[in-house]
């Protein structure tokens, strides 16, 4: 394999990423409540030597209860169950900085990292939308920039808690009765604008030191946050041109932050609609589009971009959308959708068809060769360090990707044939963070 | 088996409940960070057809970092891992109402209940102590009565969220595109003194409807809370007389609350120090007492009762303790310790020896016959519905209990030989709660 290694993450969502996946005969929609379904997905991705599996999350019902799969497992517990069914693959859970306490969240991810032997990752989200806030004692959500300010302080606290036990703090000398060296267990005494946390955490440092930090916001605030904190970035990019611009911009910000460009892996989403022939792939794409329930899709689109389009005639052009400065939701996704609608002059029906596959992530229909070509092109021309693979149907779409696309990527010397490392950080080629307290005492010495 | 069935819960704690367990040659103290150790404990308890395993928890470091095992897994994730290694046994996690949000906590336990196929239980604690509060943006903890008021409202919210999907809300009709009947998915619109939560939960109702509700506070506030909410109560009782008084009082309060006496199971803690002979059991008890590190034990005792006894001479009598009204910690445990010290006129060294086995829970050293006699006596004379078994050494003490005491209890027709039910509620002989929204619509009809 060449020095630079492709990274693949399997984004697991219900019975598939296409919004009508559950209506397609190749899925079993009751599986969304079955832990065995998700463990099976973890095993399939591991068979394909994927770096990781990933679960999105929210703290409210998404979409239209009548027509959507609105129920979901809590991700950290579900990944703990997947950890028991797998040996190597990384386990990335989404959790919000908006509505939980850093001490609780630090413990959950530390525990997942311990339980999985160093395979935990945290996809950091700030959570947009008033519906979420209304589940947490608030009438309305806080403003976009402030959400990111809170997130930054949240990360300060959580990473300090993860460092509060130095790696060699445990002594465990039964003879003397000394269990730990108390000089290596630190109060963090954080006092900030949003949080005051004394510490230490009641858990020893986890196998990875810090679980891998992942981020997916692509707004200005989001990119600045990623440049400071993220080690992997999931992003939605519709074209090679946009993807390259995003990749270049993000790496530049990372370097401007004093980090190496390599220290952050950029993974655009890809929805691979696979067929043995192009015609077969197109047929599957059409079948899925046919199954979209327009009323549900328009409601989901409205939530996605933070603009109410329900009631707008389906076969009229998408109306002019407000300026992004008026959007308090997911700003970058709003811009992506607006640009797509304007560029291609889409009607509302056409737009929901285009978004049905991956909510703004790029949909590529084709043969395994064509999908592999697409991946290779983006990987070798500065658009991606890897991909966030979003199979339209689960498990079938992931299994097909593993059985037909992954072998091509291996043959082209782009992707691993076996795991060589043990932790999620190993898979992504990222170092284990030095403990800030150990570092401080070494500097003093 | 007689109509009334004994219930056994295995309280799992590190490598044993005795505070010096980790120094004893029969334990491996490094196992406290090993998920396989806890999975093994789950399997041992399941071999003994225990109703459940249980994990305590706190949101701070307990005790003296130098001499204690201060690190621990987060319980819900650890029980999720144990769920994967077992099939029948119930899984009870402690979580605090003091420092988390009802929506997040409702999801975690719903998820554990889904993942385990209906085996989840929640041991509700309010969390005493300023050290905990200082990890959550506060200088000092709130006052005892207010903690329970918050807990009661927390339960109102969590149970409403668990009911927010009626049991038959899922339709999953691919043909029509209807996933759920939206008239059976309810906003809860809670607005109270401590919380405002809109709902619904983003999870369908879990196999048990509500995870089993467990509680362990034995103060006035604690008992009133238990009478309203608890379905199982863990309690520390030193004598048969005290245990009977507690049992009678609690059942009376439950009935006064309009619930049947049977609807709450009372399980005192028991620390069985087992030996093939009495002399062998006494020798083990002495070995463990010898291994106590006094400075650590006094610090733990001080935390347990909320009175600082560090610095008091070990071989002097325990000093007079303040009135319980001045205690803002675990009031009932304070009274238990005070009564024990006064009744037996103990020195501080003697007191820490007496508490070393089980932090105030009853220690019974003896042969399997003697332990079984003790259990039978308490069970048949109105002192207990079962026991919270706290093995002094783990796994050895639990394995000995399962292999030598459980067979006697089975032979005496007190305890099950196999699981007949599927869920934790089945094991405890407790009904699946009726959904409040279904009930309301039936009443209206």
The total domain count of chain A is 1
Give the beta-strand count of chain A. Answer: 13
Which two chains touch over the largest interface?
A-B, 75 and 73 residues
Strand percent estimate of chain A = 5-15%
Shape of chain A: globular
End-to-end distance of chain A: 42 Å
CATH topology value of chain A: TIM Barrel
Notable features of this structure?
Diverse_substr_monoxygenases (chains A, B); 40% helix; homodimer; 445 residues; TIM Barrel; eight-stranded parallel β-barrel; 15 helices; oxidoreductase activity, acting on paired donors, with incorporation or reduction of molecular oxygen (chains A, B); Luciferase-like_dom (chains A, B); two-stranded antiparallel ribbon; alpha/beta
Topology of this protein?
The structure is a homodimer of 445-residue chains.
Chain A: E1 7-12, H1 35-47, E2 52-55, H2 75-85, E3 90-96, H3 102-115, E4 120-125, H4 130-133, H5 144-162, E5 170-173, E6 178-180, E7 190-191, E8 196-197, E9 212-215, H6 220-229, E10 232-235, H7 240-256, E11 265-274, H8 278-290, H9 294-305, H10 331-343, H11 348-356, E12 362-366, H12 368-380, E13 386-389, H13 396-411, H14 424-428, H15 436-444
Parallel strand pairs in A: 1-2, 1-13, 2-3, 3-4, 4-9, 9-10, 10-11, 11-12, 11-13
Antiparallel strand pairs in A: 5-6, 7-8
Helix pairs in contact in A: 1-2, 2-3, 3-5, 5-6, 6-7, 9-11, 12-13
